[in-house]
Amino acid sequence: MMMMISPSLLAADFTKLDRELDRITRGGAEWLHLDVMDGVFVPNISFGLPVIQSLRKISRLTFDVHLMIQEPLLYVDAFADAGADYLTFHLESSSDPEKMIDAIHARGMKAGLSIKPNTPAEAVFPYLDKLDLILVMSVEPGFGGQKFMPACLDKIRILHEKAPEIPISVDGGINAETGRLCREAGADVLVAGSYVFGAKDVVAAIDSLMA
Ligand code: DX5
Ligand code: ZN
Question: What's the pLDDT score for residue 2?
């Protein structure tokens, strides 16, 4: 898999979402990272189904939905209907990971599994044969604009070595410098919120992540 950049909508200007999507699409992004938070799994609430459903009508980007919710199994159908391409949930949530992955596949989506900074890479091993994406958090989930935690790099290395065929995504505090470290460790997808949407020159920001 080639390097993918997945700009995180959380850092976009919510009063101008159509223009924001235009800006990153022209800037060369092929994926859009959509952070859904329920105020239970993480101490923050972001946006949900109606926003994703609306954006689906105006965008052909690959929708990379990151669920930070306590009971993701209850919402698999709803996110499929809303237009998610990848549906990523947290190993630390309450839903059974096997059931979750099967339910995601049954609705024709790609299944991603995410781990928080305190969860070891090995915790993902039992699910590797079923996964389409692994999302390694490089900050505590819940907020954009936090500082990159370098401890995620070892986890990326371990997972890349164990399952080189599964794309590894990394999320939180990504910029040109931290992005390069993640790429060198074996990451395939870089999620970047503030670095991309906060940039005056989005083309240059995305290029710097690919370079
Ligand atoms: C945090 C979210 C991230 C966030 C990243 O819980 O999962 O996707 O938007 O934002 P930056 O790139 O600003 O750290
Ligand atoms: Zn995210």
Answer: 81
Compute how many other C-beta atoms are within 10 angstroms of the C-beta atom of residue 182. Answer: 26
Judge if the beta carbon of residue 188 lies within 6 A of ligand 1: no
Q: What are phi and psi of 14, to 5 degrees?
A: -70, -10
The edge-to-edge listing of strands for the beta sheet with 168-171 is 4-7, 189-192, 168-171, 133-137, 110-115, 86-90, 62-68, 31-37
Q: Which residues contact 79 (CB under 8 A, 6 or more apart)?
A: 36, 49, 52, 65, 67, 87, 109
**At which residue do the structure tokens 């990153």 appear?**
24
* Per-residue pLDDT tens over the stretch 115-127: 999 999 999 999 9
Give the distance (Å) from ligand 2 centre to CA of residue 126.
Answer: 23
Rounded distance from Cα 204 to ligand 1 centre (Å): 20
Shortest CA distance to 158 belongs to which of 116, 122, 118? Answer: 122
What pTM value is reported for the model?
Answer: 0.98
R_g (Cα) of the chain, nearest Å: 16
Which residues place a Cβ less than 5 A from the ion ligand 2? 35, 66, 171
Please report which ligand is nearest the Cα atom of 42: 1
Q: Are 80 and 107 contacting, i.e. CB atoms less than 8 angstroms apart? A: yes
How far apart (Å, rounded) are the C-alpha atoms in residues 19 and 49? 20
